[in-house]
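Worked example 3 (structure in, sequence out).
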């Protein structure tokens, strides 16, 4: 049993050594910190590298896309609100016309009843005058 424990310890030590050595040999890939180098020509202007130009173009493109998306969202929101306002105005106008039609209908019934009563009363008066 002791022999197996010694072998096991030896195996663990060898594995630890291999793991540690693999960490020492492993290359770490990461983004190198960019420090702009002042490369000036005779006129005092700075030249930019292709990578810096591509990064600037990417940043500008992303900012332009975000601005376009925001503008499109604002335009859609404004159009939606305008359509809702138009629909509310149309509904208000329809409601006003309905109320006016209802008032006209009620006034028409009242006029019919009044004219019927006047005709009845006129007929009664005419009948009484003719009968005497």
């Amino acid at each position: 049993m002791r022999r197996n424990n010694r072998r096991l310890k030896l195996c663990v030590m060898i594995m630890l050594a291999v793991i540690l050595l693999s960490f020492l040999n492993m290359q770490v890939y990461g983004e190198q910190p960019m420090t702009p180098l002042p490369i000036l020509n005779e006129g005092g202007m700075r030249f930019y590298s292709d990578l810096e130009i591509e990064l600037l173009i990417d940043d500008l493109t992303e900012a332009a896309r975000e601005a376009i998306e925001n503008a499109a969202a604002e335009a859609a929101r404004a159009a939606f609100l305008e359509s809702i306002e138009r629909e509310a105005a149309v509904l208000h106008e329809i409601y006003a016309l309905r109320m006016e039609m209802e008032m006209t209908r009620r006034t028409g019934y009242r006029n019919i009843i009044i004219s019927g009563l006047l005709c009845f009363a006129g007929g009664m008066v005419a009948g009484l005058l003719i009968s005497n």
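Notes: The CA atoms of residues 102 and 108 lie 10 Å apart. The mean pLDDT is 81.
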